[in-house]
Amino acid sequence: MDILDSFLEFFKDKNKPLLLYALLCFFGGLICLLLSKYSNLQVSGVSAWAKPFNFFISISIFAFSMALYLDYLDNQKQVTIYCWSFMIFLSIELLMIAVQAARGRKSHYNIDTPLDRVIFALMGLSITVILIHTIYITFLFFIQKQFSVSDEMILAIKLSLIIMVIFMLEGYVMISLSKHTIGSEDVTKGIPAFNWSKNYGDLRVAHFFGMHALQIIPILTFVLASTKRDVYLIAFLYFVFVTFTLIQAWQGRPFIK
User: Do 204 and 225 share a domain, yes or no?
Assistant: First the structure.
């Protein structure tokens, strides 16, 4: 009971809208998982609901992380605006992906019909708004002088935001190519859950790990770091790892065979 009380106390003053949104996205992911098990609908050889599941869960984790980190910013007026922007535009993204899944059609790089083009354009607009707004939030973290958390942890948050933004931008590279597989078309055999190509390079690997720097670097900092130097080393090594997966993909080599 004491552990539960401590858990609830920790989240008491955190960003409630984003925490609730994270929970809703998590349940959305569970629904997609169930649909993937009981629906025969497929896109590119896998369940049509696999991609919505991945996006719901990923955005749930994103929302949960930001709900924790945004509490450290003094400018809560801008935080509130960001939260509404986050929830509105990422909901559009998720809705468009789910709609395409229900139609049995690709959501990304799909410009086959006028409706597909509109949906893909809405997805691109939504992600662009979130990217720009997240860059602004990152700027707020850098200009603020004092925080109610250790210097090591706030440095981890700042560095993870930078890495995340860099690899969010990688998404535009995939859009310019109209695919994410290097060395073949996107319809290739993938590893379970992620569906990353097992035979060719896949740009989604670096995109995934880069985006989740937002969680991994602060966790590693909490567990391993005792000085700012430790945090810089963790962030640097993680950035090298993600960059390696990007180079590997560009060379047409799979992350895991």
Answer: yes
Sign of CA dihedral 128, 133, 135, 136: positive
Dist CA 77 CA 145 (whole Å):
18
Task: Say what the pLDDT of residue 11 is.
Answer: 58
Same domain, 210 and 225: yes
Strand spans (E) along the chain: 42-43, 46-47, 181-182, 201-202
pLDDT per position as a tens digit, 98-154? 999 999 999 999 999 999 999 999 999 999 999 999 999 999 999 999 999 999 999
Longest dimension (CA), the chain: 57
For residues 225 and 114, membership in a common domain is answered with no
pLDDT digits (tens, 9 = 90+) for 58-89: 999 999 999 999 999 999 999 999 999 999 99
Residue partners of 44: CB distance under 8 A and separation at least 6: 106, 186, 187
- Please tell me the distance from the alpha carbon of residue 167 to that of residue 203, in angstroms, as a whole number: 10
CA 50 from chain centre, in angstroms, equals 16
The pLDDT, as a whole number, for residue 213 is 97
Same domain, 109 and 158: no
Q: Is the overall model pTM greater than 0.85, yes or no?
A: yes
Distance (Å, rounded) from C-alpha 255 to C-alpha 257?
A: 7
Per-chain mean pLDDT for the chain:
92
How far lies 170's CA from each of 125, 202, 216, in Å?
15, 12, 19
Q: Tell me whether residue 8 is in a domain.
A: no
The pLDDT confidence band at residue 57, using thresholds 50, 70 and 90, is very high
